[in-house]
Design goal:
Strand order of the largest sheet: 14-17-18-13-12-20-21
Strand content: 15-25%
Bound molecules: nicotinamide-adenine-dinucleotide, 5-oxo-L-norvaline
CATH superfamily of the largest domain: Aldehyde Dehydrogenase, Chain A, domain 1
Number of helices: 16
Number of domains: 2
Largest sheet: 7 strands, mixed
Number of strands: 23
Structural class: alpha/beta
């Protein structure tokens, strides 16, 4: 027994390791990469804390060296998915009644393990499996995930603290129950941290979670699952079930106890999940919470008062960091004619210094795109551009998959502001630029807002304050994360809660209280100390 209002301190963001030449961090990371590469591992499902093997196997490869197999993983089928649902529902009773401070402790311990003994493993696994350079792996798999874990524990406390007013004769309370059933987390390949957040955020608030990782990220995600187990996650609370996307609909979405979906991925897959849930709506015990962060077509819009050096850096970093495989990536840019000549030269100068290749060579800024399917998809877009009269490749455009799925950083210039690559998400290292006439600034703002169906990220560059105000107002619904004089990527937990609307998702803002609120089903409790003993009102006495 214990009594007390226990408190979690407001966290600080995790500091980023730099992996400089000669540093111990760098040596350790290099050694871990070599160690992981040396040994092919077998990845089982983890259901009820136990390893389950199906014999139906897939392979995890290195995108920048696709003949290298890192692991063989087991694929869940109907039997294992049914088992995962059953054990999750069984684990729910004990998990939801565990004092919240102890649930928080498990995830705060996971953050400590990741900051310390697990840091290099998770980082190296993400570098190899998702082809991230050391900095990109560090800001994702380590720092962002640690921040998610620590800040979410703090936000959970803030939610629980929010209580209604009461009187002296009665006491009102809100009991922030978890959802009734299980949450299905369907996670993307591109951020280990996002996968971690999609499963741990609902779990922290007392929910049980079945986790379907993205095929291309199973390797790093498996290590993460092991870390959570080491942190003391009880069996069955999170079940790790790599599976075919098409089986999810058949064996998970039709379950009466589906209480929520926590999804990040493409708009297309999210739409299909939404439709399937709608078709099953009569079956469910409760209306499932459908939370999804999806595609993007991030923009950079420059005014002729922009600072050129800052703008060029934002274009390069925004478009080409992690091979443009961020939902937030700058994939279209609007540049005024009066600035183009000077920007063009500086852009070329910078592009010529970008090295693409194996991420084990720390000099490389970019690695490979994630897989053959993605490589082929981007290549087709570039072929389309090469044949078009409305656009031309200004820089790059070469693709080579002989060793890894490499695509050069590519800049396209188009004369059509509604050109295919200005509208659609390519999810690769490709930036399309539209050069507008300075006198058409207002119309071009309108084009920016209406060209793409997405509304995730956007950045504006200007030094003139009235212009900044105008851009902020006119582009109000174009981006859920809007940047002024900065690149549109790199949101930090606790600083820039992340998510967009339109076709970019439900905008439930990962890394904030708003997201956590989707995983609770509040129960209002009123206790009256001296209940009324007759039904009449005072006005009923007399005529
Ligand atoms: N808005 C955001 O916060 C955000 C963040 C990261 C990525 N993304 C988006 O994610 C996409 C890239 O990630 P991806 O390639 O992993 O996306 P994806 O949609 O291909 O896959 C996402 C997840 O859905 C699963 N899936 C695929 N088909 C399914 C089906 N029919 N039923 C159930 N699950 C299915 C995949 O296996 C994976 O686990 C991009 O569109 C990107 O913009 C968005
Ligand atoms: N939150 C990340 C993007 C996640 C999507 O891929 C950013 O802000 O760059």
């Amino acid at each position: 027994m214990y009594n007390g209002c226990f408190r979690i301190n407001k966290p600080q963001n995790e500091s980023i390791f730099t992996y400089e030449l000669g540093s111990q961090q760098r040596n350790e990371l290099k050694a871990k990469i070599a160690e992981l590469k040396e040994k092919e591992i077998e990845i089982p499902l983890i259901i009820d804390g136990k390893e389950v093997k199906t014999g139906n196997l897939g392979t995890c490869i290195i995108p920048h060296n696709h003949q290298h197999v890192l692991a063989r993983y087991h694929i869940a089928g109907e039997k294992e998915m049914n088992l995962a649902k059953d054990v999750a529902l069984k684990a729910k009773k004990t998990w939801e009644s565990m004092p919240w401070t102890h649930r928080a402790s498990i995830f705060l311990k996971a953050a400590e393990l990741l900051a310390g003994p697990w840091r290099t493993t998770i980082n190296a696994a993400t570098m190899l499996c998702q082809s991230k350079n050391p900095h990109q792996a560090e800001i994702d798999a380590v720092c962002e995930l640690i921040d998610f874990l620590r800040f979410n524990a703090f936000f959970m406390q803030e939610i629980y603290e929010e209580q209604p007013v009461s009187g002296t004769e009665f006491w009102n309370r809100i009991d922030y129950r978890p959802l009734e059933g299980f949450v299905l987390a369907i996670t993307p390949f591109n951020f280990t941290a996002i996968a971690g957040n999609l499963v741990t955020a609902p779990a922290m608030l007392g929910n049980v979670v079945n986790w379907k990782p993205a095929t291309a990220a199973i390797y790093s995600n498996y290590f993460l699952m092991k870390l959570l187990q080491e942190a003391g996650l009880p069996d069955g609370v999170i079940n790790f079930i790599p599976s075919m996307g098409s089986d999810i609909g058949k064996y998970m979405l039709n379950c009466e106890w589906l209480a929520g979906i926590h999804f990040t991925g493409s708009t297309e897959v999210f739409n299909s999940l939404w439709k399937e849930v709608a078709q099953n709506v009569e079956k469910y015990k409760s209306y499932p919470r459908i939370v999804g962060e999806t595609g993007g077509k991030g923009f950079i819009f420059a005014h002729n008062s922009s600072r050129v050096d800052a703008l060029v850096t934002a274009l390069i970093r925004g478009a080409f960091e992690y091979q443009g495989q961020k939902c937030s990536a700058a994939s279209r840019a609007y540049i005024p004619k009066s600035l183009w000549n000077v920007i063009k030269d500086k852009l070329l100068e910078a592009l010529e210094t970008i090295k693409v290749g194996d991420i084990e060579d720390f000099r490389n800024f970019m690695g490979a795109v994630i897989d053959y399917k993605s490589f082929e998809r981007i290549k087709k877009y570039l072929e389309y551009v090469k044949e078009s009269h409305e656009a031309q490749i200004f820089y790059g455009g070469k693709c080579d998959d002989s060793v890894g799925y490499f695509i050069e950083p590519t800049v396209i210039i188009t004369s059509n502001p509604r050109f295919k690559t200005m509208e659609e998400e390519l999810f690769g290292p490709v930036l399309t630029v539209y050069i507008y006439d300075d006198s058409a600034f207002d119309e071009t703002l309108e084009l920016c807002s209406t060209t793409s169906p997405y509304g995730l990220t956007g950045a504006v560059f200007a030094t003139d304050r009235q212009t900044i105000i105008k851009m902020e107002q006119r582009l109000s619904y174009t981006a859920g994360n809007f940047y002024i004089n900065d690149k549109p990527t790199g949101a930090v937990v606790g600083q820039q809660p992340f998510g967009g609307s339109r076709s970019s998702g439900t905008n439930d803002k990962a890394g904030s209280k708003l997201n956590l609120l989707r995983w609770v089903s509040p129960r209002t409790i009123k206790e009256t100390f001296d209940p009324a003993k007759s039904y009449g009102y005072p006005h009923m006495v007399g005529k």
